[in-house]
Amino acid sequence: MKLSPMMEQYISIKKDYEDCILFFRLGDFYEMFFDDAKLGSKELELTLTGKNCGQEERAPMCGVPFHSAESYIAKLVDKGYKVAICEQIEDPASAKGIVKREVIQVVTPGTVTAQSMLAEKENNYLACVYTDMQTGGMAISYCDISTGELKVTEYTDSDPYETLLNELVKINAKEIITSQDFAANYPVDEIHQITEAYINTASNEFFSRKSSLEAIKAQFDCISVAAIGLEEDGLSVLSLGALLSYLLETQKHSLNQITKVQTYETGRHMALDKATLRNLELTETLYDKRISGSLLGVLDKTHTAMGSRKMKRWLREPLNDSSEINRRLDGVEELYGQLLIRNNLKEALKGIYDFERLAGRIACGSANGKDMIALKNSLSVLPEIKELLSYTDSDILKEINQEIDPLNEVCNIIEKAICEDPPFNIKEGGLIKWGYSEELDALKDSIKDGKSWISGLESAERERTGIRNLKVGYNRVFGYYLEITKSFYDQIPENYIRKQTLANAERFITPELKDMENLVLNAEAKINQMEYDIFSSIREYIGGFIRKLQSTSEAIAKLDVLCAFAHVSEREGYIKPVIDDSMEIEILKGRHPVIEQSIGDGLFISNDTYLNDKDYSLLLITGPNMAGKSTYMRQTALLVLMAQAGCFIPCEKAKIGVVDRIFTRIGASDNLAQGQSTFYVEMSELS
Hints:
Strand content: 15-25%
Number of helices: 25
Strand order of the largest sheet: 3-4-2-1-5-6
Number of strands: 22
Largest sheet: 6 strands, mixed
């Protein structure tokens, strides 16, 4: 038997998205069919039903309401599935035959853009890896499309695979694209196990140099990739080109939020391998994966989501350049000493929304009216921040002040055009302020009389008919109506035309009400369309300021981290370390930043550390269980790392020669913050 036309359309679309769960739009629902339905019903705990498809057996089917689809998509993506969203691309009312449908977006773990699906204080990186099987060289590019951040590097090491693993763990990639050659020669399962990322293996042809160069040149509007700091025959081109191609394939629209690519060398930052990142508990505890009990839990007193994401990057990527480290420390020192300025900056930062991601939504055309108001409110704080920074002297704070653009044009157009409390849906009107568009205002004026007639109809008809509980109502399906309960059926006038029957009431319409309804609803449809067009043009105008929005949000994030470092340093009694290029580490009366907080004031016994490259290059630490060996080793590593990230440290005096790498492998497992040593944890697990 032949499939029904609608099911033929479904099968035709599904063929191109075999590796995805297809969300197929039918009216107010996204439906899944056949194997997708069986999988979706199991993973989302939905009822599995069936639909006539033209064959003897009904097609397995389950679905979710389109207005709440994001939460269901988020669950599937979290479980490691790709979801293709297939929409109706023409109005069903005017369609001839089957409504045209096509996939408008593919959502994967690394390409999530919906605000509700993103962790506010965590970047969502998609990484792409390319390996030259002859030279052993590797390139990795990674992008957060919610912010537009894009970075790329390449290297040839004695152990490039280990370097790759460390980079992937450091950035905490959610999805990794690799080639078939890579998957055949490297342990992809191990990468998945270590990073917990979704691994996407693409064909070798996907990494062709020709298509990669075309994708890069198109994205950055350049004649040669040399203009953005890349070499045409480099490995970076293949990794970056494949990444951009994948993003275009999944997003189905231009990537306007990606305005630049940043090349970097893996040696520019302190090298922290995967074991060190895990054992030092920089951003989460080893034992139960919580922020509380980690170094981030102590230091993150930022007030913006952008600042929190920036602090995570600074802790995972401490600097290796002593002059850059001292620039950060000088900024922290000034904010530490200028209490009034720091407190005023902190208050101002509280009024700033995540406009780094707002800019991303504006660039890809998904921002709504509430996003615009959040952007305006954020930008309106910037002049105050610039004024406060004008009283500072350190180089980094002066530079931040120069990088902050108050974007008055953007602020002004949103202030003039967008209502203060706009609806979430941008196609239902209520967006544009009175006075912004004369044509829109005239159209709104034209239906005032009709609306006032309808609003006065209820009292007029109650008086005319004597029906005390007569109501005038409206819904989208039936339009306007007069509702009368059964107890007054004998008083219904002859000119009332029955429209709908309810359990205890009837709904009617009159010829006059029908005429007025046509007048009002037709005008309202025009008003809503006009408001949508105006809003879209404003959003497009603001899209021209994406670069400025991104550079300003970057500056605000840096300022937020420096303020947080200064605040914690003053509150906890940290001091400014001396950072130079010597081969010496001297820490006097150092304290563990995390443990001293978890055990209370005065109980942590401070200790000294001295290391150099001559007569004190090695310390051999011995002692019984729970004597503090692991604590002392981690404490030294954390203080050096904090200093090179640009933060003051808990001690009386410190002189640190820049460290280019930290190795930390302490026991099998421990939980020092909760008083559990390696031996204790091992014995507990054994029992």
